[in-house]
Every structure is written in structure tokens, then in C-alpha cells.
Amino acid sequence: MRIFPTLTALCTAGALALAGVPWLLKTQSRVDLAATRVQKLRTELLEMREMLRDRETAFNEVHTAQEALAQDYVALEAAHSSLVNEAAGLRDRTAKLDRERDSAQMLLSKIEELETELETEREQLESRIASESERLQLDLAGVRAAQADFEARTAAAPDPTSSAVAALREQVLGPVFQLSGGEAVGSAVLVGYVDDEDDPHYLALSCYHVVRDILEGRDDFNSYREVSFRAVFTGLDACEDAYPARMIEWDIESDLALLKVETSAELGPVARIAPLERTEEIGVFREIYTVGCPLGTAAQATRGMITRETWEVAGEPYWMVSSPAFFGNSGGGVFHAETLELVGIFAKIYTHGSYRPQVITHMGLAVPLTRLHSWLTEIGHAELLPKP
User: Fold this and answer.
1) How many domains does the chain have?
2) In terms of C-beta density within 10 A (0-12 exposed, 13-18 middle, 19 or more buried), how is residue 246 classed?
3) Cβ proximity of 178 and 231 under 8 Å
4) Does residue 215 belong to any structural domain of this protein?
5) Residue 247: CATH number of its domain
6) pLDDT (average), residues 213-235
7) What is the DSSP string of 274-310?
8) Are strands 176-181 and 184-194 parallel, antiparallel or unpaired?
9) Quick one: DSSP state of residue 238?
């Protein structure tokens, strides 16, 4: 360093001063010169230190800038990678769009072809429609001529509907009549007439519980055969005629009763009980008429079908029928819709529940034809059944 030569010079100057003043002056001059140089060197040292501090500061700034540049570089690399990926995605989407554009162009071409074909077919269809219209006009003229001819022939022929309605009134409504007594009402069906000079009478089928309810409360309630009640017949003119009737046979389990209507008056036709062979064709979906006197009215018919053949109540067989029935229909007839033959006796309306029973009017129970045949044979009245 420069400090040591300077100190050496000073020491030398001091020694020389001891030797003499002239020399001392000369030496003093040299010392001053050295001091000036030292001062200058100190100044330069301070300047150099300041420069070092500036350079260190600049270096730190440069280092900081370098780190920031490194971080920016990393961010730029990530952005570049993202841009590369996006560019690849754009290329894929562009390729997909190109394929979709090609497909769309193909579809447009196909649509144009289809439009051309449809136009051709439309023209052909219009041509066929025109020709068919002409043919239909000719056919319509023929149909109108045939209709006019049919109407002319129909006007001269009897009305089959009228004859069918007349047959229903005579064979289905006619044999059914009302039973009444006290507050109870029910129905019954004429099934035979006994032309006895001493005792002319009709025989009818009904339900045991109907007669039981009519006779309930009488002192002679147990003498069924000796007690009479009203059999009410209502004509189409709404005129009513009442005759005495008595129950001569009954079956509590099957809920059947055979009645004797004591009169020689003409009560109209009796019902034809169907032969036992008819059971082979009677089954579920077989259409029927249920005829009775609901709520004490004249005989009314409702249409329905047999919905179930095997329904038991207390071990007794019944049919379930869908023809609507109401209170008072019990004892009425169930008739075959085609042959108009009597095939059952309506017994009761189905009820659901025990606490508050709900009456289901389109679910009725009827005593079936097989039981009618067997019971009438058991009680000795097989003459009411058709001959085999």
C-alpha cells in the first residue's frame, strides 16, 4: 500500500531535521508534497470506496434484475408452452371444423338430391291423387245410387230394430215384477203358469232374503207358506195391478225362493229358463241383461257382462256381473243378451269393508244357471225347466 512509503519518508525527514535546518526545509517541502499526495490518495481512496459502493449497488440491482428476468423467462416459457398447447388445440379444432364443413357440404348435397326426389314424387303423387279422385268420384256416384236403392228397399222392409226392441220388452222386461210389503221391496221373475180350473196361478223365482225382509215383524213370520204379500205388475202404460203372492219353496243357503202368484189374469209372457247346455257357452265377457225393480220402481234393464264365474259366499256359488244394480234388484232376472233366456237370479250387490261398507253397484252377485236347474229339480219343479 502507499501508506508505508509515506511514513518512511516522514521518519527520514525527522532524522534529517536533527542534522540541520537547511536540510530540514528541503525535507519539509518533501513532507508537504508527500502529505499532499497522501491527502490526494485519501481522496482517491474515498472516491474508490464510493465507486465500490456504487458498483455494489449497481451489482445488486443487476442481480435483482437478473432474478426478475429469470422469473420472467420462466413465465414466458410457461406462456409459450400454453400457447403451443392452444395452437395444437386450435389445429385440432380447425381440422374438426374442416371435417364438419365437409360433412355439411355432403349433407347439403344429399338434401338437394332428396329435394329433387321429393319434387318428383310429389308430382307423381299429385298425378295419382288426381286419377284416384276421379275414380272415387265415380265410385261415390255408384255408392250414392246404391244407397238410394237401399233406402228405397229399406223403406219397404220392416224395421228389425223395432222387432228386436219388442222382443226385449216381451221376453226380458215383461216377466219381471215388483214385490212389496211394509218398508221392503224386491223383484221376481215369472217362470211358469199353471192352468188349473180350481187354482190357476203363476210360478215365479225370487230371492229368499227378499221375502224374509217383506214378512219381517209379522206375528206369523215363521209360516211362510200361509202368508201373502203384494206382487205388483206395471204395464207400459204405467198402470199397476197387484195380486197376492206366497212363498211355497225356499233355500236359505242359495238365497232362492219359488213364489205362487194367485191370479188367473193375463200377466204376459213368462221367462224361458235356459237349458243346462247353455252353461258351456256362458262365461266371462258373456253379455247379459240384469232386470229388476230398483227402489220400488217398475222393471228396468241394465246391460253388462259376466265378469267372474267362480265367486263363493258362505260356500255357495255365484256369478259376478258388471250390469249396474241397486237396492230392490234382488230377486230379478239375469238374461242372456242374445237368446233372451233366463240364466240367473240377481241376489245381492257387492259391498266392500265391514266398518262402513261401500256398495259397488257394478259388482253384483247372481245365482248361476246350474244352481237354478239343480234346485228346481230338488224341490220337484223340473217341469219349469226346458225339455232336454
Assistant:
1) 2
2) middle
3) yes
4) yes
5) 2.40.10.120
6) 79
7) PPGGGGGT--TT-EEEEEE-GGG-S-EEEEEEEEEEE
8) antiparallel
9) S
